[in-house]
TrEMBL record:
Family: Belongs to the triosephosphate isomerase family.
Top-level division of the source organism's lineage: Bacteria
InterPro entries, alphabetized: Aldolase_TIM, TIM_sf, TrioseP_Isoase_bac/euk, Triosephosphate_isomerase, Triosephosphate_isomerase_AS
Gene Ontology CC entries for this record: cytosol
Keywords from the UniProt entry: Cytoplasm, Gluconeogenesis, Glycolysis, Isomerase
E.C. designation(s): 5.3.1.1
Complexes and interactors: Homodimer.
Name the record gives this protein: Triosephosphate isomerase
Keyword Cell cycle: no
Enzyme type, top EC level: isomerase
One Pfam assignment: TIM
Length: 250
């Protein structure tokens, strides 16, 4: 059976005291058993979150990192820096990074390479804009994101990779993709991995859905065969709604 995962991506939300207050109540409630739980706070709060959550089986994930080892890249964070504060996983290719920070498939391929070199786990995001959904080119678009950004890795490397499908038109809009649309794309992603690697690799890769997942739609989305969990934005910022989404697996 594949891993089940619910990951909260806090984006640019919560300072240190807000993070402390979320975590103190979250820790009282979260009991990851059948489902792996992850939280991606801001860089400034990663170390606090790591220390606070290490006995609670909740993984702390970075939202991004630079592809180079070190150097003159003002404002950037390296893999080594993340590892030094206990963070061993990173989200790469989130659509907001692609859109606002010009991250291309080529840059992402380099980031993937660096993360793997440092034995970090990767949540690799893909997803189409609304016009591609409307004009029917969304499969081709996602396939290109995968092949150019991720498919240079080895079969062995897939053990460290989680794919997240996040249609851009559903992120933060309240407009969720239907469970059927999600399943269709997840199945396509799994088949694409199978064609380029192997059935064994494809069967083992967790594929998460992200885009307006809420307590009231999580169960139905998670019930689909190729959906192994969610990458949650807005609803991960409140303990109550995040817990309900985690518990949607029960
Ligand atoms: O990384 C998370 C996604 O961008 C989804 O965000 P959302 O749940 O606020 O739509």
């Amino acid at each position: 059976m594949r891993r089940k995962i619910v990951a909260g991506n806090w984006k640019m939300n919560y300072d240190l005291s807000e993070t402390e207050s979320f975590l103190s109540s979250f820790k009282e409630q979260v009991r990851p058993e059948d489902v792996e739980v992850m939280i991606a706070p801001a860089f400034t709060n990663l170390n606090h979150a790591f220390k606070s959550l290490r006995d609670h089986d909740v993984k702390v994930v970075a939202q991004n990192m630079h592809q180079c080892e070190s150097g003159a890249y003002t404002g950037e964070i390296s893999a080594k820096m993340l590892l030094s504060v206990g963070v061993k996983s990173v989200i790469l290719g989130h659509s907001e990074r692609r859109e606002y920070f010009n991250e291309t498939n080529k840059t992402l391929a380099e980031k993937v390479e660096t993360a793997l070199k440092h034995e970090m786990a990767i949540i690799f995001c893909v997803g189409e804009e609304e016009d591609k959904r409307d004009n029917g080119t969304y499969f081709d678009f996602v396939k290109k994101q995968l092949s150019e950004g991720l498919f240079h890795i080895s079969k062995e490397d897939w053990k460290s990779v989680i794919v997240a499908y996040e249609p851009i038109w559903a992120i933060g809009t309240g407009k969720t993709a239907s469970p059927e649309q999600v399943q269709e794309m997840h199945e396509f992603i799994r088949n694409t991995i199978q064609n380029d690697f192997s059935e064994g690799v494809a069967e083992g890769v967790p594929i998460l859905y992200g885009g307006s997942v809420k307590p009231d739609n999580a169960k139905e989305i998670f019930s689909k065969e190729d959906v192994d969990g969610g990458l949650i934005g807005g609803a991960s910022l409140e303990v109550e709604s995040f817990m309900k989404i985690i518990n949607a697996f029960k």
